[in-house]
Amino acid sequence: MERLTQVLDDSLLLTSATDQAAWLACGNITSEHLTLATLEAIDRRDGQLNSYTCLQPDEALRAARASDQRRSQGLTLSPLDGLTLAVSDNIDVAGMVTRCGMDGPKMLSPALQDAFVVERLRAAGMVILGKLHVQESPSSDVLGEAYPVRCYNPHKLSHAAGGLNGGCGAAVAAGLCSFAVGTDTLGALRIPASYCGVTAIKPSAGTVSTVGSFRLSRRLDHVGPLAKTPQDLYLILPYMMAIDPNCVGSRPLLLPKRPVRVRDLSLGAFQGLDQWGLIPEIATTYDAALELFAEFGAHIQNCDWGDYPGDQYQSAGLTLCEAEIGVEYGGKLLGLPNALPEKLQRMISRGQKIMAADVIVADRLLDESVSRLQKALVKNDFLLMPTSLQAAFNFKEPVPALQTCLTSIANFSGHPAVSVPMGWSKDGLPLGLQIIGNHGSDMQLLRLAQWFEKQAGLNMRPLHLNHETDQWGARLQYGQLH
User: Fold this and answer.
1) What is the pLDDT of residue 256?
2) Measured between alpha carbons, how far is 393 from 136 in angstroms, rounded to an integer?
3) For residue 136, what pLDDT is reported?
4) How far is CA 149 from the centre of its chain?
5) Using an 8 Å Cβ cutoff, are 41 and 176 in contact?
6) Neighbouring residues of 91: CB distance < 8 A, sequence distance ≥ 6
7) Which pLDDT tens digit goes with each residue over 255-308?
8) Which residue from 90, 87, 91, 70 is spatially nearest to 79, judged by alpha carbons?
9) Which of 119, 126, 130 is nearest to 67 (CA)?
10) What is the mean pLDDT of the chain?
11) How many CB atoms lie within 10 A of CB 198?
12) What is the rounded CA–CA span in Å between residue 168 and residue 50?
C-alpha cells in the first residue's frame, strides 16, 4: 500500500499545475496532501538533482492547511491557491536568506520582505516551499566557464539542468514544485526549460516587477515563471503582472487576450544558424516544427540570421552586466574577506575596470540587435528559432560558450519570449523551440505555444521512476514529433 501511494503521488506531482489546480478545485486532493507529497519527493530525489538550496517545510505546511481552510469556506483566493511554488535563490522571500549562489551565509541576513512578485503570488494563496540553486553570475553561460554549483538534469543525471537557473528547470521537470519563479537576464529561465523539457516565459519588459531580485542589469533583467506546460504559464502570469511604483519602467500589459489562429499567422523562421554551431539534430527537429506550423496554414517566412554576430552581442550583454555589478555591488561585497566565490570576485573586478566608453559601445551594439529583431517582427506576427544551439551538455564536457546566443536577443529588446519543448535528441535529451512576440503579446504567445504543444503531441515527463531503486531512466527518442 505504501508503494502504491508513492506511485500515485509521483503521478500527481508529474502532472501539470493546471491539472493539480483542477483537482484542488473539485476536492480530489488537498493542498496539504500536495505539499506533503512534494516535500517527501524532494527528500527522496533532490539528493540526485541538487535543485533546492533550502526548504521551509513547516511554513509550507501551515500555508497549505490555511489554503484548505479557505477552500472549505468558499474563500479561495485564486486558481493558484494551494499550488506549490519554489523561488530561485536570487529573489527575496521574507525570512529566508538570499544567497545568489554564494556559499557565504554568515555574511547574509534573512530578507525582511518578499520580492514584489513573491508577495503577489503569496497573496494569491500559493504555498512557498523554498529556494532553488542559482549560479552566482551569468559568465559561465557566456564565457564557457565551469559551473561552481551543479544542478543535474532529471533526464540524464550526467548532464546539466541549465545555466543560471538550472535549479528551476530540474525542480519543475522532476515534479518537485508546481511552479518556479526566477530571473532571466540573458536566457537564464528559457535555457533550463529547453534542457529539462519544460516551459518558461520571459515576459515583456516592465510587465513583471524585478524589485527584490539580485540586479545584474537594469536593461536586461526580467523575472518570469517556469512550469511544465504553456497552459500552466497562462494560469500564473497574470498574477505576476502588476504596476510596481518602485520598479523603474513598470508598465501594464496593454494588448488583450485575443485568440490566436495559426492559419492567419505569418511566422518568421530564423535560418543560417548552423554557422553559429547549431547541432544537426536540433536543426532537424526545428525543421519538423516549422513543417507542423505550415501544415496548419501558417505562412512561414525565412529570416536569414547567418551573419548575425551573436557572439559579439552576447559579450556586449555580459559587459553591461559586469559594469553594473562592479558599480552596484563592488564596494558592498569586495570588502568582505573570503565571502565571495572566486568567479564573482573576478566579475566584479572586471566590472570596476570597464570604462564608460566600453559601456556606450556595448549599449550601441545591443541597439543594433534590437533594430534587427524589430524589423523581423514588422513583417511577422511571431518569430521562431531553437532555444539553444545544443542540447544539455555533459558535465564531463566543456561548458558551451554560446548558450545564450539565441535567448539573449529578447533580453536586449525586451520582447516576450517563450521556450516550449519541440522534441528529443538522439540521446534522449529535450530540445526547445523559442517563440518571440511583439511587446505586450505575452498571452497570445502562450496560446501559440500551447497550440504547438498540443499538435506536437510530446510526452515530456522526463523519466520514469523505478520505485525499487528511486533511479531515473530515459524514455523517449530523437525526433519524436507526431
Assistant:
1) 63
2) 19
3) 64
4) 17
5) yes
6) 98, 115, 117, 118, 181, 182, 183, 212, 213, 214, 223
7) 666 788 999 999 999 999 988 889 999 999 999 999 999 999 999 999 998 888
8) 70
9) 126
10) 88
11) 30
12) 11
Hey, where are the domains in the chain?
2-309+362-474
* Residue 440 and residue 447 in contact, taking contact as beta carbons nearer than 8 Å: no
For residue 300, give the H/E element and its range: strand 299-304
Rounded to whole angstroms, the Cα distance separating 35 from 237 reads 21
Question: 299-304 and 266-271: which strand pairing?
Answer: parallel
Calpha distance 393→166 (Å, rounded): 12
**Fold for domain 2-309+362-474?**
Amidase signature (AS) enzymes (3.90.1300)
Task: Using CB atoms within 10 Å of the CB of residue 331, give its burial: 0 to 12 exposed, 13 to 18 middle, 19+ buried.
Answer: exposed
> What are the two backbone dihedrals, phi and then psi, of residue 77, each rounded to the nearest 5 degrees?
-80, -30
Other beta carbons within 10 Å of 258: 10
CB 457 within 8 A of CB 482: yes
Beta strands 52-55; 127-132: pairing state: antiparallel
Burial of residue 38 (number of CB atoms within 10 Å: 0-12, 13-18, 19+) = buried
At 440, list the grid cell: 505586450
Three cell numbers, residue 429: 535529451
Residue 150's nearest CA partner among 126, 133, 137, 125 is 133
Alpha-carbon Rg for the chain in angstroms: 21
Cα–Cα distance measured from residue 391 to residue 5, given in angstroms and rounded to the nearest whole number: 34
